Amino acid sequence: MEFTPPSRKCFPTKSKEEEEEDERIYQKYMDLISTLPTERGCTSDHITLYQGFWHLPTSSLLGVMAVQQHFKARSTNILLASTPKSGTTWMNALIFSIVNPLYDFSTHPLLTHNSHECVPMLEISIYKTSQIANPDVLPSPRLFSTHIPYSSLPKSTIDSNCRIVYICRNPKDVFVSFWHFADVIQIKLNKDQPVISLEETFQMFCKGASPWGPYWDHVLGYWKASLEWPKRILFLKYEVLRSNTSVCLKKLAQHLEYPFSLEEEKQGVVEKILELCSFENLSNLEVNKSSDKELVPGVKFSAFFRKGQVGD
Ligand code: A3P
Q: Is Transferase given among the entry's keywords (predicted)?
């Protein structure tokens, strides 16, 4: 089965008028962003407060606003939510494998594509900063990831009853992972500002002023929603997933309504998915190790793999 990354299908050729309309829409968002409170950023010269959370103003907040205004979820959609560095890349791979059981493991798309290509991030890959996409062209079930906090999700994701999975990770590991990630993609340094220290970044993270922070508010939004609507929202922890991957994988498949059949279990499908999506396997694939392919300019896919450990 041929695989084309979904986000590529979402950008139809637009007429000049349509392009100008997109530009007007993004300019409107820029105007709104310029009125919002700001704080010095640890990875950019400032971050912007929007609906109670801190955002990178251009690279993600424009996308968030576009998602809120234009994205229409369907009941069959699957949304993976997380704060950055909580295990999004791993979960993308697991969810994609569960929902696409027809791919042969020897030619599986995850062997040649990063999981962010298989499960595009709504605010980064679908609603880019220059063009309103058309994800309606994608067949159901559509899989998306997002860092958007629960309280800022577009209304249709709540109303449509689509499945949501949230992956949460110990904040100390999230912080350490974030610090290294920022280093790899060289965003600790502003052209005319000194490199920000680990201690200062840590203080900012603790007080909530980091991209997609406050961390605990992000986690709590999804945690409370998962208690209220357990059938709709599955709350998983990176650490539990790491120590008991097989049980979590089956629970995840059940939640997504793609449970493994007895036949599949007998054929070792669970083990094959675990092996395919393991840190050791994914991080050593050419696409994730040495290729120049990027999620967005300056962010190579290799930046999403470091140690994959608990308590680093
Ligand atoms: P570390 O920096 O601690 O190693 P995200 O995908 O949300 O950006 O999170 C990245 C973190 O998940 C990184 O953590 C990365 O190494 C880890 N990770 C990536 N793929 C993984 C996998 N298949 N299994 C476990 N951890 C993985």
A: yes
Pocket perturbation via mutation, ligand 1, pick of 85, 166, 285 by most ligand atoms within 8 A of CB: 85
- Does 177 contact ligand 1 (Cβ within 6 A)? yes
CA distances for 230 relative to 49, 164, 165, 237, angstroms: 30, 10, 10, 15
CB 211 near ligand 1, within 6 Å: no
C-alpha closest to that of 86 among 228, 196, 242, 226: 242
CA distance 179 to 174: 9
| Token pair in block for residue 281 | 């396997």
Note the pLDDT tens digit of each residue in 165-216. 999 999 999 999 999 898 887 665 455 566 778 898 899 999 999 999 999 9
Which residue, judged by its Cα, is nearest atom 27 of ligand 1?
308
Domain architecture of the chain: domains with CATH:
6-304 (3.40.50.300)
Q: Which of 214, 224, 220 is nearest to 55 (CA)?
A: 214
Residue 305 — φ and ψ, nearest 5°?
-130, 125
Q: Just list the catalytic residues.
A: 147
Is the full-model pTM beyond 0.90? yes
Instruction: Quote the ligand 1 centre to 152 CA distance (angstroms).
Output: 25
